[in-house]
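Q: Given only this backbone (548 positions), what sequence would you predict?
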């Protein structure tokens, strides 16, 4: 891939999300922007113009310059505030959000004032924002000869946040090294699918490439570090990983720690198109079942929609609680209605997918009146996180444990195939400004479909758990469900059989050795090349023995 363009702000932000995205931007590749990305771009523009207003109001009475070139002379004689200063060299072409001068007394260099960088940003400040701010600091330190030790993050409302920069701007220096190598074509990032993919404009292209390569990052949750470790062991694909699953007894001291998710077992489930049941999950579902799904805006911790499906005896009902505004009273209102609904049942189980719902209940507990506080405590005691049961015990032939993927595997569909948790943020924001009824309907529909899929997943789990970990069986759709304890028994049997196979038989079989998934004995779980090496060693030993 030829890298032609200079490093821009868009490229840097893309790189901080995902290295591959940074490279694609550098190469001026175009993708299809998702609704979310378009909405996010507009929102950022709105927030930045709010932040400009906020900053200039705080620096009322000071000289403010805008859109000026950032050069040594301009920095020496520049105004107190520079908005959108332009920096350009052979590598970078960048507009810096703002620079503000320190008070002369705050300067370490003989009372001279100098600039510190400002980043406009409204949401939570994370590593990408800190890195970008530090990169701004590094750029201006070259021009003014003084390294800023702090930077500011300015929001559209309220006081700016002061960020302490690393000594010597080490983070920015190593980031700049990486970017330079990428620009010069000296390094190519490996493709690692990640959380940003669901809203990324290159989603289809990267997914297709990952499927073609059988890329390890298809397994959701597998990060770059884990992939690098596996690569060092010679494992590059999901299929190769599937041969490495071993039944191990957990060491005594590890038994008390939380159980782990086994990627090789998931890979095995995908290869064999089976469902594996690992361990002995416990899920008490007696009484009324209430399937809960809450929608909100994670950055601001606001909640606006609660959906529940209630199954009490033979009776099933669906309820929706909608908040028209982001006000605290509206939020308290919808949670109070949910708690009043729960209060009708003496015995119930609150079923949800992931921890978002319980976090929401805990957050709202602080704002609710006393009887509701106790009810929330009670509801939390009766809650079951279905995702955690699945993550630890059920290995489906799917690349992830998202509700959409598991629901899709079980045959559930969403009316809008592009719908996702992040997509709902864009719909809600548009609804708040336009009040278009179809957007509200879309959100309620999406929430309801999540509840329906959750109900389906729970019923499916129940079916598996009812059969227990005794032996393999098939679900209603015909997929084989295998307890991993059965795999262990099979493995014991296999060892015994292997020992009885004579070398000549192994040799005979090895001449017809299949190259794909199974070896001569037909059921050994090891890659063909490893099996071949093992066999040739045995044959070599045999030949040496017969010679002597
Ligand atoms: S789709 Fe994912 S892997 Fe590809 S560029 Fe976007 S974020 Fe990176």
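A: Predicted residues:
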């Amino acid at each position: 891939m030829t890298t032609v363009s200079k490093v821009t702000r868009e490229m840097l932000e893309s790189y901080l999300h995902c290295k591959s995205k940074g490279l694609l931007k550098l190469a001026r590749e175009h993708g299809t922007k998702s609704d979310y990305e378009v909405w996010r771009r507009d929102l950022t523009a709105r927030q930045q113009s709010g932040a400009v207003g906020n900053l200039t109001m705080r620096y009322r009475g000071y000289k403010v310059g805008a859109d000026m070139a950032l050069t040594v002379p301009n920095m020496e004689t520049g105004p107190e505030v520079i908005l959108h200063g332009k920096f350009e060299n052979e590598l970078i072409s960048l507009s810096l959000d703002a620079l503000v001068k320190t008070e002369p007394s705050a300067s370490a260099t003989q009372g001279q004032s100098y600039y510190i960088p400002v980043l406009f940003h409204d949401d939570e400040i994370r590593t990408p924002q800190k890195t970008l701010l530090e990169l701004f600091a590094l750029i201006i330190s070259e021009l003014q000869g003084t390294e800023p030790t702090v930077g500011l993050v300015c929001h559209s409302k309220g006081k700016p946040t002061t960020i302490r920069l690393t000594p010597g701007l080490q983070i920015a220096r190593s980031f700049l090294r990486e970017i330079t190598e990428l620009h010069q074509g000296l390094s190519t990032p490996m493709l690692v699918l990640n959380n940003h993919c669901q809203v990324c404009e290159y989603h289809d292209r990267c997914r297709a490439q990952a499927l073609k390569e059988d890329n390890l990052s298809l397994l959701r949750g597998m990060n770059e570090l884990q992939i690098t470790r596996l690569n060092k062991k010679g494992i590059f694909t999901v299929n190769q990983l599937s041969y490495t699953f071993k039944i191990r007894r957990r060491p005594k001291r590890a038994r008390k720690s939380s159980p782990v998710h086994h990627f090789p077992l998931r890979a095995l489930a995908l290869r064999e198109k089976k469902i594996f049941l690992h361990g002995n999950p416990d899920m008490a579902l007696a009484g009324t079942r209430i399937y809960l799904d809450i929608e909100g805006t994670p950055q601001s911790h606001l909640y606006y929609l609660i959906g529940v499906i209630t199954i009490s005896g033979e009776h099933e009902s669906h309820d929706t609680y909608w908040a028209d505004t982001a006000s605290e009273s509206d939020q308290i209102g919808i949670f109070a209605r949910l708690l009043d609904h729960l209060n009708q049942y003496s015995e119930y189980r609150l079923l949800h997918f992931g921890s978002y719902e319980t976090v929401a209940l805990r957050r709202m507990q602080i704002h609710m009146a006393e009887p509701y506080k106790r009810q929330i405590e009670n509801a939390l005691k009766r809650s079951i996180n279905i995702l955690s049961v699945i993550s630890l015990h059920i290995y489906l032939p799917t690349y992830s444990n998202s509700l959409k993927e598991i629901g899709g595997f079980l045959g559930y569909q969403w009316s809008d195939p592009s719908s996702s948790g992040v997509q709902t943020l864009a719909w809600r924001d548009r609804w708040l400004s336009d009040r278009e009824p179809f957007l509200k309907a879309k959100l309620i529909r999406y929430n309801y479909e999540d509840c329906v899929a959750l109900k389906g997943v729970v019923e499916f789990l129940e079916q598996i758990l009812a059969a227990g970990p005794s032996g393999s069986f098939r679900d209603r759709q015909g997929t084989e469900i295998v307890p991993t304890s059965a795999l262990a028994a099979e493995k014991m049997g296999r060892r015994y059989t292997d020992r009885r196979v004579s070398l000549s038989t192994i040799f005979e079989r090895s001449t017809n050795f299949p190259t794909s998934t199974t070896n001569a004995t037909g059921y050994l779980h090891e890659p063909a090349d490893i099996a071949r090496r093992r066999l040739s060693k045995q044959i070599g030993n045999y030949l040496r023995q017969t010679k002597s």
